[in-house]
From TrEMBL, chain A:
It comes from Rhodanobacter glycinis. SUPFAM superfamilies: CheW-like. Its main location: cytoplasm. The keyword Secreted does not apply. Keywords: Cytoplasm. The lineage of its organism: Bacteria, Pseudomonadati, Pseudomonadota, Gammaproteobacteria, Lysobacterales. PROSITE patterns: CHEW (PS50851). It holds the Pfam family CheW. It is found in: Cytoplasm. Residues 10-150 form the CheW-like domain. GO terms for biological process: chemotaxis; signal transduction. One of its GO terms (cellular component) is cytosol. This is Chemotaxis protein CheW.
Amino acid sequence: MYEDKQAAAPSQQLTFSLADEEYGVDILAVREIRSWTRVTRIPQTPDYVLGVLNLRGAIVPIMDLRLRFGLQRESYGDDTVVIIVAIGERLFGIVVDAVSDVVDIDPAAIKPVPDMGAVVDTRYLKGLATYAERMVMLLDVEKLMRPEDVETLDAALPAIQEVEVAA
Amino acid sequence: MSAVDLTQFHKTFFEESREGLDAMEAALLALDSGATDHELVHTIFRAAHSIKGGAATFGFADVAAFTHVAESLLEEVRSERRAVDAGLIEVLLCSVDCMRAMLERSSQGQPVADAESEALRVELVQLVSGEVAAPVVAAASMVAPVSGWNIAFTALPHLLQTGNDPLRLFRELQQLGRLEVVRAFITDSAPAQLAELDPSQCYLGWELRLHGAVARAEIDAVFDWLDGDCELAIAPLAEVAVAGPVAQAAGESLPVATAAPRPIRETAAASGEGSSIRVGIDKVDALINMMGELVITQSMLSDIGEKFELSQLGRLRDGLVQLERTTRELQESVMRIRMLPIGSVFNRFPRLVHDLERKLDKRVKLELHGEHTELDKTVLEKIGDPLVHLVRNAIDHGLESPAQRKAAGKSETGTLKLNAYHEGGNIVVQISDDGAGLNHAAIVAKAQQRGLIAAGQELSDAEVAELIFQPGFSTAAQATDLSGRGVGMDVVRRNVRDLGGSVGVRSVSGKGSTFTITLPLTLAIIDGLVTAVGSERYIVPLTSIVESLRLRADAVRRIAGGGEVFHFRDEYLPIMRLHRAFACNDAVTDIEHGIVVVIEEDGRRVGLLVDDLLGQQQAVVKSLEAHYQRVQGISGATILSDGSVALIVDVGGVVRLGQRSKAA
């Protein structure tokens, strides 16, 4: 659904900055933008999942995008912004440095992410776009919320089940 | 003219047919248990008739054809040309199953008829035409002399609104024989003034005479759809003196159909387990009342708040108390909407017991108690399978064969009791039988063989009972050479535990056993103890807390491998440091300064070390999975009064976490 809209008309992207780089997320996936509030930590989760917060009764996980990308953690203050995005019915928040703008991007102008080898983790990017001579990296929100450990677990699951049956 | 798209009605048709089949099944089972109610036969017939009609309308020809044959058979029962016996009920029950399967396949767009349904259809056809040939002659000799019928037919005012048309009825009757209208009259319900006449109401009644050798059943069929919409009396023409016994029989069975509700429909409605709930209007009214109270309290409070003076403190406090009470009542009312009677689950057991009786050659009397006990819809949907399992086990392994029972000096018919009732904040469901009870010797032997217990180990009754819930105890092959129980009892326990409940067994050798399932009233709200660990808050469900205590440092022993245990009521319990399990910073690490909360899950106890107890709170359980994923040791989250999120400890998960770290 989300992909379709992206392909059809010029897509609007909400751009934000993170460690001096510019990223974009499809505006249709954005539910709201709010300032940083304290979250409740969840045990047994990767460090980039900061915890959960109460979004009008819904328990929504919050992820630090810097940590997700393996960058240095910044301290959170009043300027820190949380973007709440939705994939289908599921909501989650991403912590970014600052929100910049809403820009129109022609889908035809989106270039694939070059293969950087193992140096840079590019799997959470959908493509690269240029806007006002700046490069905007378009986020693939769906992949963001699928933690790598879940992927690893999924791959390992059949083996685990076999062990259990055998035991 | 564009054709009406009938597919839009398919869902309704399938739903109604399923309800109809449920009603048929319930009525058949009632007949089987010896009830000879005429209304029961009618119920069965009507259900079959509606399904046939619907199936034909919507183009499910195979279903219609099958149901038609079943209906013909029922028709004979209804017109008392065929006696109801166990064999017939068995065949009809099979037909119900078959129709259910056919409808299921139709709804999935698969081919409907299969070898099984075809075989059954042929059997039914043979029953209708062949075997019954002799009785037909006898019946014919009884029916034939009737030269006609007197029909007194008075429409109730709403007759027309149900889509019935007296004219159509008369036309149908005319096809049966010569119809004579003796008298048509206006009923008492008609308004005196013409101006007050409501054209959508029917104020007419007729006395009709139908001449010809017409079977009573044929007339019944014409009036079948008018049940509850008219007053009807059908009697054979008086001058046919030959038909003495028939007149008597018909006179007895004069079904003066009135608007009496059919109880069977009610139960069928209650068993609806779709994603929608039917809510009684009284529950909605209660909600609206509560809402009104809340609005009043709110306006009173805002009134106080607008020009607050210290002198009004008392009023403010009163208002807050009222607010608290109303909120709680409102919460209970909302919760009650999700509550459905357990009867909808119990309803499937008469059939199960009936089938098992035949299969296992045992005699069982099923007693159901507390069908009206209500529990949460989610719990209700998931409790069915464990209950079926327990009932099956009770009949298969618990109750002895009639011969064995006789030898033991008991009645040949075993009793299986299902009981549901409220106890505290819980629902208790009990399945008890008066069978042989658990076979301790065999269970112990099996457990030793499986290496679950050491040879020569002495076990108490409770410990032996506990063994049957062990996973190792559960394959079909073992169940046959073990005369005790144990088929998938671990699965039952796991299912019940997933619902936040527990299951236990009490057994007296030779007297029977009782399985008790305790379930929370609802999964949506729990009573919890708010604990502090570092700067974080965790909620521990009150139901799993045994005791909270402060330990002296010398009460803690270390055992090999670094695990900590302490002495509690004659046993050593492991200490589980919550701050370590959940990796909390700045928590109390010195046991002397923290508090140990003893929690219990399935008889296993663990001492949970927390910093402090902050108080008791009702917690509305929110799922973490809705937006995130399952987290081990956490069963959900809730929102505290300051709007922040607190996590709810999954006691079972924490106990297992503790065991894993001990094993590691």
